[in-house]
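Fold this complex.
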Amino acid sequence: MAINHEVLDKILLPYPDKVKKNRIKHIVRKNPEEGCQQIEANTRTIPGIISQRGCCYAGCKGVVVGPIKDMITITHGPVGCGYYSWGTRRNKARADENTPPEQIYGAMCFITDMQEPDIVFGGEKKLAKMIDEVVEIFHPRAINICATCPIGLIGDDLGAVAKAASERHKIQVLSYNCEGYKGVSQSAGHHIANNMLLEHVIGTGDAKSEPEKYVINILGEYNIGGDSWEIERILHDIGYTIQGVLTGDSSYEEIKNIHIANLNLVMCHRSINYIAEMMEEKYGTPWLKVNFIGVEATKKSLRDLAQVTGDETFIRKTEEVIAREDSVVLPVLEQYRKICAGKIAFAFVGGSRSHHYQHLLRDLGMEVVVAGYEFAHRDDYEGRQVIPTIKLDADTKNIPELDIKPDPERYQEAHVHLNLSKEKYDEICSRIPLGYYEGMYPDMKSGNLMIDDCNHYEAEILVKRLKPDLFFAGVRDKYIAQKMGIPAKQLHSYDYSGPYAGFTGAMNFARDVAHAMTTPAWRLITPPWEKETKEPGDNNA
Amino acid sequence: MLDCMPEGPVEHTIGKINPAKTCQPIGAMYAALGIHNCLPHSHGSQGCCAYHRMHLARHFRDQVLASSSSFTEGASVFGGAANLKTAIRNIFEIYNPEIIAVHTTCLSETIGDDLPTIIKQSEIPEGKRVIHTNTPSYQGSHITGFSNMVRSMISYLAEATEPVKKEQVNILPGFVNPGDMREIKRILQEFGIPGIMLPDTTNVLDAPLTNRYSLYPEGGTTIAQIADTGNSKQTIALGSWASDAAGAMLLDKCKVPCVPLRTPIGLKATDDLIMTLHEKFSCEVPGSLAVERGQVVDTLIDTHFHYQGKKVVIFGDPDIVIPLTEFVLTMGMIPKYVLTGTPGARFETEIKHMLGEYQVEGSIVKAEGDLFQLHQWIKEEPVDLLIGTTYGKYIARAEDIPLVRVGFPILDRAVHPLMPIVGYRGCLRLIEMISNTLLDRRDRDVSDEDYELVM
Ligand code: SF4
Ligand code: SF4
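Structure:
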């Protein structure tokens, strides 16, 4: 069934006027004839609407700083926020030559567990004491302190506590004022975390760049289900050296030295573009938007990267690795295409996955007809060229923008970072969009829908109308879709599978998606004694 | 696993490291899902609501709907009244529940929003209800939040309207799985005693997959039933942390007497429930239940050598841990460390009393503890088995001790919310889990010559 005006009207119908006026701007049906279509994003969630969004704390602690494996992150607040973000995001981490197993804290959870007197009289002493105990017990290399909602209100000065603790223990103690009410979603927390890491961690190491190596960082890759290990496997095979992955399986030790990289790759643009941009301003490091989700997308990213190096060896090696991987992956995908081809899907996730996964689904012959992000900004839909035109509202203005100046010792121009002549660099830039992200829009087919911050009600109507074959969302929406008879996969946690990135990941994903659609139970919903025969997915006509 | 754990004893006096509790609102949300046609509403920033829904969805593997007041910084400064009023209007227009059950969060509590007044000033359509409870997470735990919400259901909705109390029982099941609630309802049916269960998450969080989707699943206690709890002649409050407050409120408000009992986990606690029903409703204990009980005793005798004398850790929520400890004592096991994250000194007294009765010495019992502490004790003196939530799996792996998953939350195994651990049938299931886990371990560890067909 086509997405026509009737469907759109139906979505908006029961909304009170104010809600309707608001939501209509978050829903765009792609029509290239209309020129650049604008979508509203990164604005307040409407009270009472069942949204998928989380909070600033979740973006800061849960997404960006929590996964740094050798830092202890203390959540300052009552027990819940820290508890729910303990071990639930599948950021895999392991020991390596920089970080022994005793210095990995990913399976642990640290909370000040504020009690009523702390709320009344302040929690600074408790926090300071907890830092002391934690240092005494675990000797971490560095500590993060993340604020939860009540902290801002009671006025605990986290910065002062952190500074004093840092002086006492001679390790870095970083504090993040990422109270959940800041901004309008997780997005504010990404920004706060990015600021802190850039200002206080990145560039504090004394590693020197190694001219014989080509060093890259992967920014915005969180190693869910082992994704970054798969990406690193491929990049290593081609011959690149990876200094840091932010922040999947990353360590404080590595992050301190990511300034030595020749180039930053950016996976999840939303959560990390601030660091990419600020490193460019501070060190001159250029960045390249990549997407390692999907075989074709991975190949394109690898080829773009090889082009950016301007180095024939990398270009050749890239093709060798691609040929090698293709020979394994393509026959496998071909099998699954038989099941998947022609099927349609919805994708409502995060700030980049709803775009990235469209490529992988296309490899399988599937089309995403409705896609949306939970907490993205307009640039993630429409492309970075819209950034200068985005009006900052009060919620966003509360998140500090750092004033970055070029580092007097370390700043180098982009072409110097890339070991290229200025001419060669300019020539490459004319072909490969360095420092740019085009957003989801160009990849959507005409007539399909983009919905920002899609809520339960809108998803329900669309599922009933369009009867997708697959529904990609988070755990909260998975079971809703399945109750409607639609197979659903979690794209945050991969339903505990993975990796889904790179070549190996594509095969895993194809298998999981095929299984989700073909598991025999879908044909058993109607009991034999219920006369009318219904097809799966037809349940809510 | 957990190589970062220190070797010897350390000073850990402040905060929580690997907590064994969570915050109040999730309990309130779970309780509210047990009202028919109800949308739980979280008054605070949306993050809490997102986390609570996520956690419940992971445990139950079922749809968990709840809305939020979605505070921004402005609301946090000026109070959340406008957000709540807008939310209530939007919820009734878009999701059309019969009732909204509002709970607070740390944020709205710290601000000090006055919920009764805000609700009074809200537009509530004819025939619809909005109730609320206060759930500041800087007190108590998720169990406190559950208890508060159930008490609020009574205080808002229960009414004594009949001159003579009805021959029916109110069952306050406490924070247990729908599978447990279903089993308790079956026991009532065996007796033939009409009952109202509050809350009732059967057919909500163990809902079947059918050809009919609805926003509000079929289950849940109806508003009419909640009102009618005021006319019942008896309340049985199962688990004092989760249910005593509501039981007391029913007595106070509607003069319904309340018998507080332990959650019917294990033989003794189930016997107590059966005897209470038998005595209060003067009806014979059905033969079917006598058979079930006999089967439990028979099994205990048949299998005691699988587990008797084994040292066990039990951790989780107090209403589950207390009767479970009693049951493992019945099984002849030794509860070496017993811990809950929820505060309440009574926990320690009750457990210590039981240990005394069975002459078990040298155990450590702790309320308001955390799993870091527990792990330290285990490192000092190991045990044979862990019984508790999913969070025990790190210790299980680090120390190579098997874990039987019981309680909330269980995030890494499925089906458990549908399977009871209460009643005599629950006893059999617990025996099976404990016994099989220990035997599997033995089979894994023994040498070839000791590997046996019959055990
Ligand atoms: S702030 Fe929210 S998630 Fe955190 S403890 Fe309080 S209610 Fe729970
Ligand atoms: S209290 Fe604030 S920080 Fe904690 S989960 Fe809720 S919204 Fe997020």
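The pocket of iron/sulfur cluster (ligand 1) is lined by residues A 77-81, 148-149; B 23, 25, 48, 51, 105-106, 137 (CB under 6 Å).
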